[in-house]
Amino acid sequence: xxxxxxxxxxxxxxxxxxxxxxxxxxxxxLMLVEVSNAMTRIYKDVYGRGPTKVRTxxxxxxxxxxxxxxxxxxxxxxxxxxxxYERLRELRIHFQYLRRDxxxxxxERITGRKVRAFVSxxxxxxxxxxxxxxxxxxx
Length: 139
What we know:
By secondary structure, the protein is an alpha+beta fold. It has one domain. Helix content is 54%, strand content 22%. It has a four-stranded antiparallel beta sheet with strand order 1-2-4-3. A hairpin with a 4-residue loop joins strand 3 and strand 4. Helix 1 runs antiparallel to helix 2, helix 1 runs parallel beside helix 5 and helix 2 runs antiparallel to helix 5. The relative contact order is 0.17.
C-alpha cells in the first residue's frame, strides 16, 4: 500500500466531506466515516488486513473514539488460541505506537483539529481494538 496515496485520499475526503450538501450532522457523519476508512487503511498497511467492523463516534465534543473488530492476522489468532493474550496485546500496541504519526495525522487532516493525545488499546481475547483521539477544544 502506498502511504502517500492514503494521506492524499484522507485530505481529499476531508475537503469533499466539508463541501457536501446537507445538515451539519450529516457532514459530521461523513467525517466520521472518513476517519473509520482512514483507520482501516492504516490497519491494512500495518497488519496486511483490516478489521471487518469499524465505527467512529464522538464521546463528547473533544474525544473521538474508533472501535475496530475482527482485525487479527492468522498468526495473531494462533497466539490468541495458545492463550498468549498479553504478548499479543503488547505486540499489537507496540506496532500501533510505531505508526502513531499516521493515526494522528489522518485524524487531524480529516477533522481539521489538532490531536492533543492518542490512546490505543486492544482486548486480545475478543479481537476488539480502540483508537482514542483527544482533540484540542475548539476556539
